[in-house]
Design goal:
Blueprint (H helix, E strand, L loop, with lengths): L2 H13 L2 E2 H10 L21 H4 L1 H17 L6 E6 L5 H10 L3 H6 E6 L3 H11 L6 E4 L10 E6 L8 E6 L2 E10 L2 E10 L17 E4 L1 H11 L5 E10 L9 E4 L2 E3 L9 E3 L2 E2 H10 L3 E2 L3 E2 H7 L2 H11 L4 H11 L7 H4 E7 L2 H6 L5
Parallel strand pairs: 2-3, 2-5, 3-4, 5-10, 10-14
Antiparallel strand pairs: 1-7, 6-7, 6-9, 7-8, 10-17, 11-12, 11-13, 15-17, 16-17
Helix pairs in contact: 4-5, 8-9, 11-12
């Protein structure tokens, strides 16, 4: 039994079953035993690997997008470059290196890393300490200074807690985590779910159908809108373009899928991002959102072929590693990163969104 599992069992015994979003929030962010609070989960020795760790081209092309966003913002003399969930700092390091090609852009930047993990914040500081830009860390967006902002987020939305609802013969019920014979187990809440909680297009379903919603989308969008300053954001994550029935909650440990309840606090727990729902939350808060596109289309649109060719010419000794990394990023197979991962741009106004580079 993990230390967090023991705490969760005690909590359930006292307060009753936990909705999936509360379980997920504790599994990832418990101050002492949460998954992200206690480890660096990236790389071969960790539990998973992300695009910036696979190939430097990913972060460099994100830098191309950020520089174009700065141009669309009117080339402000000072702009906050904000990264949500910065991992080891690899994406930001590659982005800043690419920004050296546009000195005025790099000179305008102050970097703000939104990170809740002390372990990862320390690693980011190691990786980025040599960067000649101001650096600051924040637990959430609210403490990022006001003014124009460029936002980037890779594999951040998938870690936001979700709620799950299951259609039964008696209507929709919320999925919860309770105890069965002393072990953590999924079950259903007794009370029916208010109809308003289910997206209108998904309210009809066969018994066993699952609907997932992410209340944190609305909180994030509201926080962006509350800045009341021009902003442009690029969000990249695995997920689906359109809302649909289906269960996507998953746990990964040592690069293998595992039972989300088997070792809370010791495995990464995420869900596929519903980009239609995220866009709707952005628009409801007064922002503008682009259609979501595949990662493959995004990277080619930002100049993947040209950048990879230049790197291959300058570093022929690393050609095979570069080729393998690029192919993994753009793999068009249904479960490949080029297809499974999507990208969406968000802006403070429709006019600004229309000036941003097209994602495909």
């Amino acid at each position: 039994m993990t230390p967090l599992a023991a705490e969760l069992k005690a909590l359930i015994a006292t307060e009753g079953p936990l909705p999936v979003d509360r379980f997920m929030a504790l599994a990832l962010g418990h101050p002492r035993h949460g998954y992200y609070m206690t480890r660096d989960p990236f790389g071969a020795a960790g539990d998973f690997i992300t695009a910036p760790e696979i190939c430097q081209v990913f972060g460099e092309l994100t830098g191309v997008w950020a520089a174009s966003a700065w141009e669309a913002l009117g080339r402000p003399a000072a702009v906050a470059l904000v990264e949500f969930g910065p991992g080891r700092g690899t994406l930001m390091a590659d982005l800043l290196r690419a920004a050296e090609a546009l000195p005025a852009f790099r000179a305008a930047l102050s970097v703000h890393l939104v990170e809740t993990s002390p372990v990862l914040a320390a690693r980011q500081n190691e990786v980025l300490s040599a960067a000649s830009v101001p650096l600051a860390w924040h637990r959430d967006l609210s403490t990022v200074p006001p003014g124009p902002a460029i936002l980037v987020a890779n594999e951040f939305l998938d870690a936001l807690p979700i709620r799950q609802f299951v259609m039964t013969a008696a209507g929709w019920r919320e999925r919860v985590v309770g105890l069965v014979d002393g072990a953590l187990a999924f079950g259903l809440a007794r009370d029916p779910v208010p109809q308003a909680l289910i997206p209108a297009a998904l309210r009809q379903g066969e018994p066993g159908a699952v609907v997932e919603i992410c209340p944190a989308f609305h909180h994030l969008a509201a926080g962006l809108a509350a800045r009341r300053a021009p902003l442009a954001g690029l969000f990249i994550d695995y997920g689906h373009v359109a809302s649909a029935h289906g269960e996507t909650l998953q746990a990964v440990q040592a690069h293998r899928f595992t039972d989300p309840l088997a070792a809370p606090g010791e495995a990464d727990i995420t869900a596929h991002v519903d980009f239609e729902a995220f866009a709707a939350a952005a628009v409801a808060s007064g922002l503008a959102a682009s259609p979501a596109v595949d990662q493959r289309a995004l990277l080619f649109g930002l100049g993947l072929r040209e950048r990879a060719e230049r790197l291959a010419q300058s570093r022929p000794d690393a050609f095979e590693t570069l080729r393998a990394g690029v192919e993994r990023l753009i793999d068009p197979a249904p479960a490949g990163m080029g297809s499974l991962f999507k990208a969406m741009a968000v802006a403070s106004s429709r006019d600004l969104l229309d000036r941003l580079p097209r994602l495909a």
